[in-house]
Amino acid sequence: MSRENDGWIKTTCAYCGVGCGVEARPKLSGELEIRGDKSHPSNYGKLCTKGIALGDTIITDGRLLTPTLNPNDQPQALDWSSATTLIADKFSQAIRDYGSDSVAFYVSGQLLTEDYYVANKLMKGFIGSANIDSNSRLCMASSVVGHKRAFGSDTVPVCYEDLELADMVVLVGSNLAWCHPVLFQRLRAAKQVNPELNVVVIDPRKTESCDIADQHLGLHSGSDVALFNGLLTYLDQHQHLDHTYIKAHTQGFEQALQAARAQADIAEITGLSHQQLDEFYHAFATQQKVVTLYSQGVNQSSIGSDKVNSIINCHLASGKIGYPGCGPFSVTGQPNAMGGREVGALANTLASHMEFDNPQHHQLISDFWHTDNLATQPGLKAVELFDAMAEGKIKAVWIMATNPMVSLPDSDKIRKAMQTCPFVVVSDCIADTETTRMADLVVPAQGWSEKSGTVTNSERRISRQRRVMPSPGMAKPDWWIISQVASKMGYAQHFNYRHEGEVFAEYARLSTLGNLSGERDFTLIGLTQLDDQGYSRLTPQQWPVVKLQTEIVNQRLLTKGRFYTPDGKANFIATHHKAPHDGTSNRFPLLLNSGRTRDHWHTMSRTGLSARLGEYRTQPYVQIHPNTAAYYGITSNQLVKIHNTQGQSLARAEICAQVLPGQLFMPIHWNNATAKQSKPCALIAPFTDKLSGQPEFKHTAVSIAPYALQSAARFVTRTMVTLDGVEYWARQKIEHGYLYHIESSLPAHQLANLLKQQLHSGYDQLLSVDSGSAGSQQRWVTVCGEQVLQALHVWAQSLPAPVDDLSELLKSPFSDELAGALLALPTVA
Ligand code: SF4
Fold first, then answer.
1. Is the whole-model pTM more than 0.85?
2. Who wins on pLDDT, 813 or 259?
3. Closest-lying ligand 1 atom to the alpha carbon of residue 36
4. N or C terminus of the chain with fewer C-beta within 10 Å?
5. Ligand 1 centroid distance, CA of 134 (Å)
6. Which residues are CB-neighbours of 357 under 8 A, at least 6 positions away?
7. With the C-alpha atoms ordered 714, 715, 721, 722, is the resulting torsion angle positive or negative?
């Protein structure tokens, strides 16, 4: 363990693909101090709000502590031996009865590389099926396809440093300011140093990333291919092609150009003016060093792969690739999405950038793993996997560190799939998620601060994540749990790892198979000699790791115009604009976009534990343009219903000009564990890119209406409560407890009667006050000694919300003065 500098331990942030270095120091009180790691090349000491608040999320509230059978119906605690035997038996039985493709793993970019490696080895190497897919499928699968089609390998050619060296940075479908904040800070700082650095944001929304933009192109949703086909044509028409590069290093240019030339009506399709288009095209063509950085706005599309290749085509055609300050740059969403791609945790690759359709690769891995049962063909991708489950074809599934009930499209179908599957095991560190609610068996995995292993960030930088806290209860590393199950399935000699360093060493050796002369981009040959101490002390390494990097390196790939295709040339791909699947109609005339908000992460199972992070956005919301709001009679902060044939979702209206008229934006984080009826995925149909299998999360036709209810309440409580019988609630973490925001169709006095049942006994004082005017405002407060336990305030919707939000109440010692203030009903705003 790297424990230096007065007990500070170097580790890595749990959240986004920037992969910031963190230093953590446990305190005797059980709390964790956090600061940025100044020596880490991703962030040089900087952290965003989520990284700074990492220490807030290590509380034990809601942790899953024990393997539990039937957790939702007569729960039965198991020891580890019984739990892993049960998993092994259920999987073995299904394989015996229905074949190896009747079982599946659905894994996550939250897993460490060592966890991923062992899961992939078990499923593909020994079970003999490729039915293992990662939730990274939802994040950057289209980029993987785009890279492989163009470069012959899943190669990210650039480094973060290239943002600082560029003349122009184009952000496409990326709200970098919120989704990769420290990278955005680096870009902002680079622009301060070099005001000539031209930043262009291409996004239907005017996001926070536009704060530093010289140009914002608010194009129509889904029109990126048309935009970049137009750029390719412009490069040709204005003599900005790099013919030498095209001739020496690429193929398929003429077909791609022909397809681009056939692209009619670019201004109409994109909704951009000719002047806007010309300005962007001219800047791209004339700046020498251009980085095009893109993420989910490009990838999460039914033509995501073509969007990626339309961008790469422009870089290849102008030779803007393979040297400092230049290149296409797909940034990953999750902390170890890149690690999953390397390990082969996607259903359509083998391991270490080796492929199913290459017999030599198949043989190399079979020999290395000493197996004659290596899967021979790709498995089911995420959406297909849950479709197969719903059709009864999957008899046992293991879901690791992810929450598909919230994150996959068409939530109803996902529920049906999990109900249909005879055996669902979920390993997680959180006890109550929408997915654990569907499990037959839950097993406790370690959380971020307890895990040890490696992660890879968006610039191919491998960093150690180190254990900084002991694990609570019976929580174990994922690689250990999987190895135990593998052993009980009869593969003990192949999974007898003593610690995660041994897994990593094996993985490093695997990366060298048939790769001693750089045949593949990904190699860890320089780490094959690491001993336990070397692994323990490992500093960040950027792959390819040809020799152990003792200093920070910033390596680029594809620098010599050599690609990983059979003939070594890059492929242009002819791309064609196609409208997104879900078109608007009279019934559903609005377009719903979805994405992240600044201070929350995915399904909030961790960020939802931080009072600091909870303050920024307290409830689910939908952004709506003022014209659209006026048309639908929606007022600011009002509860609204967004709906279509898939389902409905409730959120507070945020009226703003960030979105275009006719468009809406909802964050992805709230779900049935943190709110009622506020999940965007309930509205999103499972349309996917046919090559990458990535769902179209950014373009859903919906309608919207005010959701007028009769009464509202705020409920402050030290422990969570169950709220049945109300139409809407959202839970906000506050210091020492939770604040529930509630709305109901019941009259205020009936809502008050309902919620009063949630006031726990055990108090020694009960204060109450009633405005008396037909129960239009009522308040109860329970107190024990010097502590307020719970406080409930109910009011009729005919009154505006009270100013006094009670969120500070649990922090203050109870006093007569406070009692007086609480019993004087607040004036309304
Ligand atoms: Fe963590 Fe990403 Fe923030 Fe860095 S930018 S601190 S990796 S969430």
1. yes
2. 259
3. 6
4. C
5. 21
6. none
7. negative
